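Changelog excerpt

This revision adds worked examples to the README so contributors can see how folded entries look when concatenated. The first example is reproduced verbatim below.
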Amino acid sequence: MKRVRLGVALLVGAALAAGGCGSSSDTSDAGSTTASIGSSVAGGCPTDAVDVVVTVDQWGDIVERLGGDCADVTTIITGSSADPHDFEPSPSDAARFEDARLVVANGLDYDHWAERAIDTLDQAPAVVDGGEVVGREEGDNPHIWYGPTFVREVADAVTAELRELAPDAATYFDDQHAAWATAMQPYDDALAAVGTGAAGKSYAATEPVFDDMAEAVGLTDATPSGYRNAALNESDPAPGDIAAFEQALRDGEVNVLIDNTQTEGPTPVRLREVAGDAGVPVVEVSETVPPGAGSFVEWQVTQLRALAAALGA
């Protein structure tokens, strides 16, 4: 597969200042719906639209806005109806890759099924692999859409590849990228607001989904290491690790508990109960875009505002 790395993205990063509109999202067997994003800020596309497949919807809205009218974007997994880790594409899902000129994947073994689908094709598309773009390796935290810097690096890489695939629309894609960055302003404002309340404060997390964001706003990770490692490796934490987590909550070592609402089982339920009894505020986040959450910015800002409130910012 042809992959786009960070170095490619940086070639256009200086020219791509700010954010986007437009294109459409097709349906997936995992429960997506067709949704128009609206007309492009730069007007009609000056060339044939690029067929793009996005593996997971954490990136779908971003790619649609970067592509505008010059990209026909299909997102395979949308909403929370399928677990990307365990997803098995249906024949119709796999067929979506056949006409793609560009695939945008999260990488880091999060959507490994996409690589298998691409390997079966006679002519492989270009691939923007998010993990490779941001310089992480397999086994590292794959939830890179929660890293503000990572989001921009992947967006730069997508725009760079779109410009290469459709050079007649290069200026159009630059305009789309600039409009997208402008549309990210509420996200940037929310990050700044959280940062004012995060200094000197700590968090613990039922899962390491939000860790990149927590680090970006300046929170210290107080999650017991044994528990954290077990969660990152998708294994059950030892009883001693759970006990250490509960004690940290009771002892005031944790200022806020970050809870992934899509995590099932008795352990996160118990940790939320202990946090409540100890007066530790709980901030709910989700791994995938929940139904009705709106755009990427709307989804993220809702969570960041809840975090700011919990921190007294």
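The second example, added in the same revision:
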Amino acid sequence: MNIEMKRIIRSFAVVVAGALFGCVIFLLVTFRTPQSPPVIAFVPRTTGTNLAEDMRRGAKDAAQSVGYRIYWNGATREDDLDRQILIAENAVRHGAKALILGPTNVGGVTTMVDKLVAGKVPVVIVQAQAPIPTGPYLTSVTPDQPEFGRLAAERTALVTGASGQVAIVGIDHGTPETLTRAQSFMKTIAAYPNIEVVTQSLGSAQISETEQNTREIVKSFPRLKAIYAASAGATQGAMLALQDVDTNHAIALIGSDRDLFLELNLREGKLDSVVASDGYQIGYLAMRAAVVGAQGHPLPSPASMPAVLLTRENVLINGH
């Protein structure tokens, strides 16, 4: 074998050895590098509220317990439907195995949810009822909305002595749970014939709108004894109005949902009571349901979380 041939064979051997060594290193890195945990997206109605953060904690704990990771993102305003849809669709497009969604507007997300379900992407709805019929790829974990109205009506009867004029504020067609709560309130309050519901005020997610509506209601009905606010935003708006127009605290305000500073205001006596549901458990159960779907199994049936009435007395007793 001549010298040139030996040189060629030696060069070939070096190339082959280098390639084999590279393959071994690649395989070692591949098997030793931990795989990123699968992701489930959680897009709430908005971020930064007490309810949203409670749901986030519950979902995160549930995800970590089974080796999943939560992608949390949401619009900064409750009425920013376009932003919410964009966030949700991008999360799925970038590999989220399932979606947990708190609809900003139930009717507005119907097309998107229908499309995801048709594509066999598991979707879990929180904070509101599902916009389309539930099934293997769609379920919900929501507060017991009728119980909100029932508890508020019973509290109203108690604080008014079962007589007098009361009002409902914050009914928003974009958030159907406010309609359900108002209907349940009316059904329950009917058992008290001496209570007159003088108005059911339509509103929106804007606090300022409910604040203005409340001012007008108090002006129109000077003998008003109580107001039921059907959402967290409505509760804040009504409370702001009453601080100016009801300085003697003659009107009892029964609010809805744990949000922002409502519990602090409750402790300080700025509102009578708040009907709320356990956000941590909603987030936890929603994530557990989403994981079931992400693992290729049919989603569980819709779940309903009970509501509780928070008063200054039981909030202070529980140390909140």
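Reviewer comment on example two: The CA atoms of residues 165 and 222 lie 9 Å apart. The radius of gyration is 27 Å.
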